Amino acid sequence: MKKFIIWSAAGLVALLVLIQCKPNNEKPETIKKVENANSHQVTVKEVLNANAYTYLLVTEGAKEFWIAVPKTDVKVGKTYTYEGGMEMKKFESKDLKRIFDSVFFVEGITDPNAPVATEAPIDPKTIISSTQLSKGITLDKGGISIFDLYSTKDKLAGKTVILTGKVVKFLPEIMNKNWIHLQDGTSLNGFNDITITTLAKVKVDEIVTIKGTVALNKDLGAGYKYDILIEDAVLVK
């Protein structure tokens, strides 16, 4: 059985669309780690849609607070679950023309009551790696594929790499960075997606070439953990 995960149509991730909601002077007053990054079950009291995010006033037990998820369809009165989250204080939404005293940014929410589908379990032995790039993607000079990245990651730790691929998710302005999920058609044991942090802005379905530093076993707190992450990437012209 598989739960339906609600993600932004702009698709962290990711969390896409050009950002309109930014903190004052591009810097929130404080960002603090959520001490309990386990699963939360909340009920939605109010929904505010901006360009890139959906802001939700939720309750969890006796607590009432705001969370923000990549823009998606959420119903008032329904119960959802989410994991982790990063708190940003005095966060200003340019779209909504308001400042939130506190808002927790999360990568996505789950509807535990969504219809479920039955599917056969995946046999790990059937997962096949691929070294074939998707049509329309050509590696830049000195570039490597996602297959190469995963297969040689231990040797690449701390080094700069060049990747070319399609943007499948764009999450703007989380922890003062933009987050890109990139795919190029190649994979290793089912891993076909790489997360990238950057200050550059891109669009979903755009093919881009980036250059960044490989970081392994990255724990950013609040449930944001990555076996491999490309940091401080720039677009290669």
What does this structure look like?
- The protein is mainly beta.
- It folds into two domains: 8-110, OB fold (Dihydrolipoamide Acetyltransferase, E2P) (Beta Barrel), CATH 2.40.50; 128-235, OB fold (Dihydrolipoamide Acetyltransferase, E2P).
- It has two helices and 14 strands; from the N terminus they run E-E-E-E-E-E-E-E-E-H-H-E-E-E-E-E.
- The protein has a seven-stranded mixed β-sheet with strand order 2-7-8-5-4-3-6, with no helix packed on it.
- A hairpin with a 2-residue loop joins strand 4 (53-60) and strand 5.
- The longest helix is centred in the middle third of the chain and has 6 residues, at 146-151.
- The radius of gyration is 18 Å and the shape is elongated.
- The termini are far apart.
- 34% of the residues are buried.
- The model is unreliable at 1-37 (pLDDT under 50).
Q: Which labels suit this protein?
A:
237 residues, mainly beta, OB fold (Dihydrolipoamide Acetyltransferase, E2P), 4% helix, elongated, disordered N terminus
CATH topology of the largest domain: OB fold (Dihydrolipoamide Acetyltransferase, E2P)
Radius of gyration over alpha carbons?
A: 18 Å
Largest pleated sheet: 7 strands, mixed
- Count helical runs: 2
Could you say what the CATH architecture of the largest domain is?
Beta Barrel
Classified by CATH, the class of the largest domain is Mainly Beta
| Main structural class | mainly beta
What is the CATH superfamily classification of the largest domain?
A: Nucleic acid-binding proteins
> Helix proportion of residues, in percent?
under 10%
- Distance from N terminus to C terminus (CA atoms, Å) equals 44 Å
- Order of strands in the sheet with the most strands? 2-7-8-5-4-3-6
The geometry reads as elongated
Instruction: Name the beta content range.
Output: over 45%
Number of DSSP strand runs: 14
User: Can you tell me the residue ranges where pLDDT is under 50 for at least 5 consecutive residues?
Assistant: 1-37
Number of domains: 2
Q: Return the string of H and E elements.
A: EEEEEEEEEHHEEEEE
Mean pLDDT: 80
Oligomer: single chain
